[in-house]
Amino acid sequence: MSSFSRYVPFVAAMALVVVASNILVQFPMQGHVGGLSLADVLTWGAFTYPFSFLVTDLANRRYGPAVARRIVFVGFMTAVVCSILVPPFLFRHGLIEFETSADRLVRIAAASGAAFLSAQLLDVTVFNRLRRQSWWRAPIVGTLVGSVFDTLVFFGVAFSAAFAFVGPSDGFALESAPLMGVFHVDAMRWVSWALGDLSVKMIIAVVALIPYRLLAARWSQPAVAAA
Fold it and tell me: How far apart are CA 83 and CA 117, in angstroms?
């Protein structure tokens, strides 16, 4: 078996997670929790994207940081392409009700690519530094640090007025509204979206320890590639 063919499952898994996330992020989650409207703070993409960190960590555990970084670059290219192509495709087929302008798509693609690349590479670095400690420490710390960084970069670049030079802003995202839809303090809507997204990432980071432990336990002799 060639060295590349051994990595194919990780490459395919990363591409699948990124494509699914770029599609599902177009669909707000419906329902209410108390006075909180979930559609105001969450999309379905928040539940799939965090598993990209699981793929990265498993690749790092099995083959080392060099291979994990290659898989991250595959995800980065997929994220940028999907951010530009997926929304118009969904609009043309009547799956979403709004059409995003081309220059706005470029800003979203820049935010998605920058967030994915920086956060995943940070996860690889943190994981590699902690890999010889308790089995849970490297994946949970790497994922949590990467998730915080991913959320800050994506929502900051995509919606913050400070990054208006990247492309046109989303007026609705910049409007003030009660924080998370329930607190008696106003904040720009994109801040609530970021907090909702990060909350889900934190929960899934813990849940993902289960498949990580089950799969990593099978690799008592990890085939670590050179860094």
Answer: 14
What are the distances in angstroms from CA 172 to CA 40, 109, 159, 176, 177? Answer: 12, 19, 10, 9, 10
Q: How far is CA 130 from CA 66, 163, 174, in A?
A: 16, 34, 39
- Report the distance separating Cα 7 and Cα 124, nearest Å: 16
Taking a C-beta distance cutoff of 8 angstroms, is the pair 128, 121 a contact?
no
Q: Which helix (H) or strand (E) holds 33?
A: strand 32-33
Q: Regarding predicted confidence, which is higher, 54 or 27?
A: 54
Please name the residue that has the structure tokens 């990432």.
Answer: 201
Amino acid (one-letter) located at 3 = S
Q: What is the pLDDT of residues 39-76, one digit of tens each?
A: 888 889 999 999 999 999 999 999 999 999 999 999 99
Residue 179 DSSP SS3: helix
The CA distance from 70 to 145, in Å, is: 20
CA-closest candidate to residue 158, choices 175, 149, 170, 146: 170
> From the CA atom positions of the chain, what is the Rg in Å?
18
Closest to 79 measured CA to CA, from 14, 130, 123, 155? 14
